[in-house]
Amino acid sequence: MKILFMGRKQSSAEMLEWTLKNGHEVVGVLTDNHLVGSQTTEIANKYGVPVYTLEQVYELIDSHKIEIDLAISVVYWRKIKEPLISFPKFGTINLHPAPLPEYKGTAGYNLAILENLDKWAITSHYVTESIDDGPIIDKFEFSIDSLEETVVTLESKSQEFIKALYKKTIREVSLKGILNSFENKGGKYISRQEIKEMKKIEVKDKKKKKIRAFWFPPYT
């Protein structure tokens, strides 16, 4: 299967290497190669896989110079648009680090803590023009501690479930092609500006909870 791989962070690097070791052809990688020490870039270079920008992939599709059976995103941060969304034979799939349809956008981990949730989930879904709005394929749910969880610990736990769901998704697409999915309606979308506002400390806020929800070294 010809895969276009999109992702960053340690879990992304591990999944890229797993994909290559399991006999799949990775036709290109989109990642944070503009940053020093990009782990996913290191794996791509190690196996001789070309690293592209999103714009370069659009150009390759328009000029018919690339074949893609599946495009898959593992915590890739840029919005994916046409012609990439519908070009791959088996679609474009995103692994979203939050339960859908409930939590769309970028504030999932933060809201899990602020809203005292005792469960969280990782979701796979097809990509459409609207962010995190495509049909839902699968979901891995797990328990979390509403009194002790931090954004750091929740991200760490979630990455393990992302890796498990990634492997399951690749295996199932290899066997079945386009996967069964269901409607992704409702929920809340949180923008980056809204996250910025949520970080502000108000008099009424429970400060320890706010710290658990937003303190994520090395970021300010």
Strand content: 15-25%
What's the pLDDT, averaged over the residues? Answer: 94
The largest sheet is:
7 strands, mixed
Oligomer: single chain
Summarize the structure in words:
With 220 residues, the protein is of the alpha/beta class. Helices cover 35% and strands 21% of the residues. The chain has seven helices and nine strands, in the order βαβαβαβββαββαβαα. The strands form two sheets. It has a seven-stranded mixed sheet with strand order 3-2-1-4-5-7-8. Strand 2, helix 2 and strand 3 (51-52) form a beta-alpha-beta unit. The radius of gyration is 18 Å and the shape is globular.
Keywords:
two-stranded parallel sheet; 220 residues; 7 helices; alpha/beta; 7-stranded mixed beta sheet; single chain
Structure in a nutshell:
With 220 residues, the chain is of the alpha/beta class.
Topology (elements, then pairings):
Blueprint lengths: L1 E6 L1 H13 L3 E6 L8 H8 L4 E2 L1 H9 L7 E5 L17 E5 L6 E3 L2 H7 L4 E8 L9 E8 L7 H26 L11 E3 L1 H7 L8 H8 L6
Parallel strand pairs: 1-2, 1-4, 2-3, 4-5, 6-9
Antiparallel strand pairs: 5-7, 7-8
Helix pairs in contact: 1-2, 1-5, 4-7
